[in-house]
Amino acid sequence: MSISGKTAIVGVAESDEIGKVPDKPAIMLHAEAARSALAEAGLTKDDVDGLFTAGISTTELGEYMGIEPRVTDTTAVGGSSFVIHIAHAATAIATGRCEVALVTHGESGRSRVGMARPAIGPDSLRGQFEAPYGLPQPVGAYAMACTRHMHEYGTTKEQLAEIAVATRKWAMLNPKAYMRDEITIQDVLESRQITYPFNLLDCCLVTDAGGAYVMTSMERAKDLKQVPIAVLGVGEGHDHAMISQMPSYTSFAAKQSGKTAFEMAGVTHADLDLAMIYDSFTYTVLLSLEELGFCAKGEGGDFVSNQRTAPGGEFPMNTNGGGLSYTHSGMYGMFAIIEGVRQLRHDYADQGIRQVKDAKLAVVHGTGGVLSSAGTTILGRA
Amino acid sequence: MADYKKPLPTPDPVTQPFWDSLKAHEMKIQRCNDTGKYFFYPRGMSPFTLSDNISWEPVTGKGTLHAFTIVYNQRAPGFSEEVPYVVAMIDLEEGARMMTNLIDVQPDPEHVKIGMPVEIVYEDATDEITLPKFRPA
Predict the structure, then answer these.
(1) Which among A147, A194, A244 has CB closest to B99?
(2) Is some CB atom of chain B closer than 8 A to the CB atom of A248?
(3) What does the pLDDT look like over A134-180, one tens digit per residue?
(4) Which residues on chain B are in Cβ contact (under 8 Å) with A130?
(5) Residue A1: pLDDT above 90?
(6) Residues ≥6 apart with Cβ < 8 Å to B24
(7) Domains of chain B
């Protein structure tokens, strides 16, 4: 049985404030976003019978919000988790195991209020085989993988910078974006060196933010308040945990998750109106575009050149300003979904080029860990 | 050596022979005897076949640079004094790949070149722990 088109996203929201939110613990950012997403859908917490999250346990979230689900899923594989939750929720709803799924995210990434502090024990695998060498995580991991792409395909720092510059142009159109000053390629290349080949502007923000979405069956979605956005295709996977174990630095699980999602949806790349591609670092985007099949292997640099992904460009991408310029609390995937849904609902119809014209189909792609995990979803306006 | 500030590994029962081999300055890693392929990090079974048919084998300590990064910004104790430094992935001659620091090289992309030949340097961090570092060969 295919789950394609059987379920829809019916409500999305950020927490009441995003950016610097020093007075709210992480779990409250989850709950605020959840409350708003349910209200937008025209549902209440008592309608929720499927609960999904990452970063904290669904038991903690359920306790905080007074929700007792019959489907529970704390799949936590990094920032892609919330994209993968779409797949799990769609499956649970389509098979009748639950009817209304609530998926939440919240991190006090900047203020560090109410955040778990995962320790890397000296006898863990990372403690033994990575920690002694001082690789800053996760930025150094992505940087190291990127040097291999530069070596194999001649990808340049200028090409990577194209992504940061185009994404900033989208952020300039989004009042909620954290960084809204125009930047040039030169600005990126001259920003502070972090870890070669990345400069500061190749790297995502670190913010406080929550986000949530609500899913239900397409049948029930039609009676709710928002234009339902159908889940047409999903895919997920992973191929390592530590960067030192990544089989190839120029390929990752997105190749498989993307293929699976496109095939399930029965659409081609040319059919898509916009792409929301997880942008923890500029290289994350470039590699994802190749792995998802938008261009041939090694041609990611050419693909993003000449500001192709900027407002008004041929390939609208990361139209909220992305993790690079809008918000990045730590596990950004949730915000890519929220923006994809809003574009497909035409929420920005009165905001000029902020709205991708007549948007009907979007790909939302999440990357987690250190290029470890991938989740891809194709969403469509019915 | 008591003032070594950087994180040090605590060996576990499966990885102990690796750390022992470094202490002896004769690095050994594991080989899957079903496939003949070497693997790293140490595991209790072959990651290729899940078989117990594995053995510890000495390696030459020679390899090539697979990928690297130059760390300019690191506040952690022990590392902050050393920036910029190179974190590297080495393809060992025998086929496995490991993370290390590339030392005795200018931390500059003009001098650190993917594909360059490298060789192991045994760095005795404490009386108990020796780390495998690499330098240009």
Answers:
(1) A244
(2) no
(3) 999 999 999 999 999 999 999 999 999 999 999 999 999 999 999 99
(4) 99
(5) no
(6) none
(7) 16-136 (2.40.50.840)
Closest CA in chain B for residue A143: B69
Full set of structural domains in chain A with CATH: 7-115+204-381 (3.40.47.10)
Q: How far is B93 from chain A (nearest CA, A)?
A: 17
Nearest to B71 among A121, A136, A192 (CB): A136
The full DSSP string for A88-148 is HHHHHHHTTS-SEEEEEEEEETTT--S-------TTSHHHHHTGGG---TTHHHHHHHHHH
Q: Taking 70 as the threshold, does the pLDDT of residue B1 lie above it?
A: no
> How far, in Å, are A60, A73, A345 from residue A35 at the CA level?
16, 19, 20
Mean pLDDT of chain A: 97
Entry pTM:
0.97
- Contact call for B68 and A135, based on CB within 8 A: no
Residue given tokens 């690191």 in the structure block: B74
CB B68 to CB A144 under 8 A?
A: yes
Is A132 within 8 Å of chain B by CB? yes
